[in-house]
Design goal:
Distance between the termini: 37 Å
CATH class: Alpha Beta
Largest sheet: 9 strands, mixed
Number of helices: 11
Number of strands: 9
Order of helices and strands: EEEHEEHEHEHHHHHEHEHH
CATH topology: Rossmann fold
Number of domains: 1
């Protein structure tokens, strides 16, 4: 489906029926990357799955920003269109950082939060170098094209765990990444890269809804981030998935489906209890 307003034609799909859960994909992916996980989840949830700016079939006008703020506005527009006042929110990697941004800046729209392989912004002394690195990657995409970049990106140690799924699955992941466009991916790096993201650690300390921060056991840097996030928020917990790296939900989809199902069930119970107290 397409929602067109302002400077964006937002592509998304909705499936299932029940309390809403919004899923945010990672860099070089699209909403399609969540379909396998959704198929493993219990019934009783409405899945709202957009293609973020710079990715998939979402299109923006020339010079439109691919920033955290712009994507957060797109999500609010989508929720308003669907009549969703509050939603459970889950995001992976870049989508996880966006989820943290939204949780910090628009907490009134969020029922619960789950992230995979994400952090809430780099420390100041690391941001400048990361911005330079992201700019170099953006220029590489523009110079060499999407296919060359996807082959490079897929070869990074960060994604080595996907190889356990076998060549057929790797081909599916690669085909999904190849659906993107050079201009969109470059825009995303410049507008949503970790170096340009404004840290939201302090703001997250005010969040009170249930939060689960997931990392693969083998993804050591993000294990540390998950633990830091868990002690930053008031109602947070870190969850490590054994024998998994960065892309937990793709490397071990059944194990992650159990983590997400448990998180949503606990969050729904907390929301129900809170509503009863208010009543």
């Amino acid at each position: 489906m397409i929602l067109e307003r302002g400077d964006v034609r937002l592509s998304y799909f909705v499936t299932g029926d029940g309390p809403p859960v919004t899923l945010l994909h990672g860099f070089t992916q699209s909403g399609r990357s969540w379909r396998e996980l959704i198929s493993r989840m219990p019934e009783g949830w409405k899945w709202i799955v957009p293609d973020l700016r710079g990715h998939g079939e979402t299109q923006t006008r020339r010079e439109a920003p691919c920033s955290m703020e712009a994507c957060a506005a797109d999500l609010e527009m989508l929720w308003d269109e669907l009549g969703v006042e509050r939603t459970h929110l889950a995001g992976y990697s870049m989508g996880g950082r966006l989820a943290l941004h939204v949780a910090a800046r628009q907490p009134e729209r969020i029922l619960s939060l789950l992230t995979i392989g994400a952090h809430a912004g780099l420390d100041e002394d690391a941001r400048a170098g990361r911005r330079q690195g992201d700019e170099a990657l953006a220029e590489r995409i523009e110079r060499d094209g999407v296919e060359s970049f996807v082959d490079y990106w897929s070869s990074l140690p960060l994604f080595a765990g996907l190889q356990r799924r076998g060549p057929a699955y790797l081909a599916e992941v690669r085909a999904d990444r190849l659906q993107n466009h050079a201009t969109g991916l470059a825009c995303s790096l410049r507008g949503m890269g970790a170096g340009v993201m404004e840290p939201v650690w302090d703001e997250l300390s005010l969040v009170t809804f249930p939060c689960t921060f997931v990392a693969g056991q083998l993804d050591h840097g993000y294990v540390a981030s998950a633990r830091r996030l868990a002690v930053t928020v008031r109602n947070g917990r870190a969850e490590l998935v054994l024998r998994a790296g960065h892309a937990v939900h793709q490397e071990r989809p059944d194990a992650f489906a159990r983590v997400l199902a448990n998180h949503l069930a606990a969050a729904a119970a907390a929301v129900s209890a809170s509503s009863s107290t208010v009543d």
